[in-house]
Amino acid sequence: MSIVVRDVREHELDSVLALNNAAGPAILPLDAARLRHFYDSAEYFRVAERDGTMAGFLIGLGSHCEHDSSNFRWFRERYPDFFYIDRIVVASRRRGGGVGRAFYADAQSYAELRYPQLACEVFLEGGNDPALLFHGSFGFREVGQHVMAEADVRAAMLMKPLCSYPWVRDTYGERLPDEPWLARPRVATPAHGTLAPRPTGTCP
Questions:
Q1: Where are the alpha helices (DSSP H) in the chain?
Q2: In this structure, are residues 195 and 174 in contact, taking their beta carbons and an 8 Å threshold?
Q3: Residue 119, strand partner residues
Q4: Residue 197: pLDDT band by 50, 70, 90 thresholds?
Q5: Which residues form a coiled coil (predicted)?
Q6: pLDDT 10s digits, 153-168
Q7: Are 143 and 159 in contact (CB under 8 A)?
Q8: How far is CA 109 from CA 46, 118, 149, 157, 183, in A?
Q9: CA 153, CA 150: separation in Å to the nearest integer?
């Protein structure tokens, strides 16, 4: 069956939390309060369904956020404007089935209308060549490395330029066409299809 990517629903947060904390050392653990904070304020928080069950989730933040991740701060100290993939988790039984690529295609479709670059990191401890290969095949390139003091783990810092962004910004400025698929997920806009000012100081 096809993969469906959609906004997370509040009643699914317990399932998201369990999925995150079962993902292993490549994903930092969450508690319920922090996940709720993501739900309340993250710019992008979507889940994937396959065969009617949750197959994974992705949380993304704009560079305007006051996010306490040292990896996020590393990017913001070096790049003025980007969309940051804080975490992507795919259920173990669904890995290798296209869920990750569906997420990245959806996140890029959202981000390239609003940001010039995608940013994320891959932990290097314990051997993570499959994740590095996945990101490399999707157009990400390493721009540095960073040791997370809060987790004592080294990460490869990856970025991908979004080639459509300059054309979209030059053509439409701050107002996108009035199409449902262009609306911001989970973020209210002053008029349908209008790019709302990015919130500040409210992100996790």
A1: 13-21, 32-41, 70-78, 99-111, 129-137, 165-172
A2: yes
A3: 84, 159
A4: very low
A5: none
A6: 899 999 999 999 999 9
A7: yes
A8: 13, 11, 32, 21, 11
A9: 8
